[in-house]
Structure formats: structure tokens, C-alpha cells
Amino acid sequence: MVLGIDLGTGSIKILLQDINGTIRCSTSATYPVNSPEPGAAETNPECWLSALKEAIEQVQHQNIAQGFHELKIDAIGFSGQMHGIIPLSEKGEILHSAILWADGRGSEFIPILEQYIKGREAEIMNSPNAGMSAISILWLKKYRPEVYNKARWFVFPKDFIRYQLTGHIATDFSDASGSLLYNFKTHNWDQNLCKLLQIDEEKLPPIYNSLEVIGYTTAQALQYGLPDQIPVVTGAGDTPAALFGSACFINKSSPSNIIQISVGTGIQVVRPLSSIPPFNPTLNFYESVLSGQSYHMAGMLNGGLALEHVREWLNINWDEFYKEFDKNPSKIPQDLVFLPYLAGERTPYRNPNARGSWIGLSLQHTRQDLMASALFGVACTVRLGVETLLHSYNTLKPNHFSFRLVGGSSRRSGWVRLLASVLEHSLQILTISDTSAKGAAAMARTTVYKSMPEQPQFHEIQPIELPELEQLYKSFLENYQKLYPAKYPHT
Fold this sequence. Notes:
Radius of gyration: 22 Å
Enzyme class: transferase
Protein name: Xylulokinase
Strand content: 15-25%
Shape: globular
Number of helices: 15
Number of strands: 24
Pfam families: FGGY_C, FGGY_N
CATH superfamily of the largest domain: ATPase, nucleotide binding domain
CATH topology of the largest domain: Nucleotidyltransferase, domain 5
Largest sheet: 7 strands, mixed
CATH class of the largest domain: Alpha Beta
CATH architecture of the largest domain: 2-Layer Sandwich
InterPro entries: ATPase_NBD, Carb_kinase_FGGY, FGGY_C, FGGY_Carb_Kinase, FGGY_N
GO molecular function, one term: D-xylulokinase activity
Helix content: 25-40%
Strand order of the largest sheet: 18-19-17-16-22-23-24
Oligomer: single chain
Structural class: alpha+beta
Distance between the termini: 48 Å
């Protein structure tokens, strides 16, 4: 048996898999994202540890309910939200809450990074955005200097959990490559950039392969319900883990024709690659699980992040809303446009100052109308990401690709039908929604059992051909472009 642990933005998910890849049980536990000041997005790492303990207890209960009285685990794999940082002291003490990928307080440092990266785009391969690791470290250094000076390590979220179980400080190539401090030519921390930014390179963790066993659980793991001496693999960020878990990696005989879409708290539109593409300031490029493989990504901030806020504002229950919406998912108010940019936006415009709004709101609109328009606004954001990614390959012809939808949102039939219709493309819906957790378990299985993930089962959803949706999408674009002139137009 192997355990896959995925540390997401708002919840931790754990899968227990047997040697054949069958999922024995799946559990989760939630924790809050706090905003103690404008632009902040933080979580107390102690909340992660409490959730870890709770989720493992659920695994044990499910295991016993199935007639297995002992939890035998051969290896543990990890995945987790990317870009966040946790400063730790020499003794491993938490010095500050985790600063997450959605944190916008470091936007003042973007011009500095742009200046230093200019001319070196082929080495860094990513444009600076608030919430990325380097920018959050610079923010800490300026506004929490006592934390920066005392910090021995800056670790990424999944690596913090693994450290608690093993006592080993480490990261993998995918998380390192998402930091803005990584050099794609040397496949290591960029010494010159660290010096220019005056970030101490020795505070950054050593980098290991995702499938490498880097330690074993210690006696400290007992407090979370895990035995000691279990092999632990390095793991990867949540997006590359999801790619690996769904067997979405490069076949050496042919390039990938898969676009994988994940709509969780944020949105990722991803294509796996085996070579470094030309630099595109509106896209991200990161290392993947397997050596020599990587992925190109349109990353958007406002997926479930925006929808959950709208749901809370309107005091709507998701199940009640979808009960009505699923009857006719194309019933979107034609005179109401929602821009979901509650946290600024990355792809395609890289505008940290963008804000959300309803345009055309009137007395006749209902809560159901507002929620439906919010779903449509997020679907439009996904389409913008797809178009931006395809445009980087000099094509806007999605029929050359298969589109996969992964993540918890794929369980909502009305949402899936709406998204397929906005994209004007069929969607392959995988039978398992927790692909990052599955990827974490798959990394453990591959390491100890030498068993690569198999192609997943899926069913296909066809789009509804409705001219009014295309017109509403154009209205969405026009309103955005009027309100927020594009710094980097995507077409």
C-alpha cells in the first residue's frame, strides 16, 4: 500500500492505494486561508498539520471498516499548492504564516524582477507575478526583516509537511522552477539572480528528483498516526502531480496533443512538453515529475476562489443552486456580465490591479442569475487561458488537441456542460477527480513498485452549440478590455 498526500490551498487530500493502483480509501480535511491585511493570503501551517492528522485518522477508520486492522504503508508521496513559502528557523520553528500563491502584497517588486530578468528570459522562463516565491521572500525581507534574518530555510508547502514527517529539508524541480529563482539551463538555483535580489541562496532547500526517496518517517510521524521508517519520496507541485497521476506525460515517439484543464481555487490550462519553448510573458513554464519533461501553462487566479466568494455573498447552497442550474446550464442572463478578477489576474493580461464586477446588474436579476453569470465569467476565463496557450503555438485551432478536465469541479454536470459549450470543444472527464492526490500516490508506487501510471478512464461531454454564448463571451472580453487595458494582449 502507498499513501498519497496532496496539500491544497483550502484542504488536504489523502489517497491509500494498493500495489495494483486500486484506491482503497480517500479522505480530506479543510483549513482556512486568512487575509490579515489587504492583499494578504496566508495559512497557519499548524492548521495544515491538524488537517493532516484528521485526514490520516479518517484513513485508519476506513481501513478498519474494510476489515484491515493494521495500516501497512510501503511508501508516501506528496503533492501540493505551488509558490507559497514558509520561513523556518534553524530548529525548524515556524517563523511566520505561510504566504500563499494568491498573496498580492509583493506587487511592488514586480518591476525589479522584470529588470533583472530582462535579457535572461530563456533561463528563467517565467514573468514575475505577485504571490510567486521570490516576490514573497522580498516582501518578507522588507516588511518582516526580523523573520527573514532569523529564517534558515524557506520551504514550499508540501515540503513543510514532508519535513515534519522526516526531518529532511528538500524540494523538487517542479516547485523550484516555480519560484522565479530557478535557472532552466543549469537546473538549479540561479546564483546571479539571488545575488542581485540579495536573497541568500543558502536559505533555499536542496533540489531532488520527484521520484527519489529522500528520507523515512521518524518517531515524530507517530503523532499524526503514521508509523516510523516508511520511505518518503520527494513529490511534486500539484499541477505536475496531476499530470503524472493522469498519465499525461510525453510519449517519446510523439508530442502530446492533450490540454489538461484544472478548475480548483485557481485555474490551470496545461500542455506537457519535452523541450523548452520560446519565452512567452503571458504563460508559465515549469519542470515536471519525470526528468526531461516539463509543461507550459496558462495560470489564472480566479476559479473557485471567485466562485466561493460569490456563493458566500449570495448565501447560496451549491447543491441547491446546481439542482436548478443543471436543468438548463446554457441559461445564462444575456444582459449580465461577471468579471471574476477578485485577486487581480495573471494569464493573459498579468494585471494585479484588475478587480471583479457585475456589469448590467438590474432590479430584475435574481441570486440564481448572479451565480450563473459568475460561472459563465469563470468559464470565459478558462477559454482565455486556452486561447493564450494555443496562440503560443501559432494556432487557435483546438481541434488539434484533446481537452481533459480534472479536479473537483468536474463532478458538476451543469458546469461541465457550460464549460464545454464556452470552449466549443468536447471535454474528457476523468473518473477520478483528485488527480493531484492520485499523482502523489502514483509517485510513491512508481518508486517502490516500479509501476508507471496507466491511462485513466474517462467519459466525454459534448458542447451545446449556442450562438448567444459566443456573443456573451465577446461581451465579456469587451468589458474587460474597456476596464483594464491589457499590458500583454493574448492575441
